[in-house]
Specification:
The protein is built from four helices and five strands, in the order E-H-E-H-E-H-E-E-H. The chain is of the alpha/beta class. It has one domain: Rossmann fold (3-Layer(aba) Sandwich), CATH 3.40.50.450. The chain is 34% helix and 20% strand. The mean pLDDT is 88.
Length: 122
């Protein structure tokens, strides 16, 4: 069965650990999703083009919420791209934490395996 392709947006300066955990979960045998990690590590003039291409190639766009995500300019731009591309999207928060969400990025979901299976199953 084909896995759901996911594009992930996160605050690179503060939440690389969240992204690493999410990528590791995508590699589990029973994971319903896959991630093509296209994190843009260095700001380049063409980063938005690369980000848009990654979002275009996914089925679902996921924002990993940390304490500073709501003000991360790159994440805000990527959310706008996902909206323009009419992608299914949601925001993932760590269980027991309630960081500020981003407008237009979709529903905020607790990071539990059961929720990932529900939101990321085709």
């Amino acid at each position: 069965m084909a896995k759901t392709k996911v594009s992930v947006s996160y605050d690179y300066e503060h939440d690389s650990n969240l992204k690493d955990t999410f990528v590791a979960q995508s590699k589990l045998q029973d994971s319903p999703f896959s991630i093509n990690d296209v994190s843009i590590r260095e700001p380049t003039p063409h980063w938005q083009q690369k980000a848009r291409s990654a979002i275009e190639g996914c089925n679902v766009f996921v924002v990993l919420l940390g304490d500073h995500t709501f003000q991360a300019r790159g994440v805000i731009r990527e959310v706008k791209m996902a909206i323009e591309l009419n992608k299914k999207r949601f925001q993932l928060r760590k269980k027991g934490q309630w960081p500020k969400s981003l407008k237009g990025a979709g529903e905020v979901v607790a990071w539990k395996w059961m929720n990932l299976q529900k939101w990321l199953a085709k």
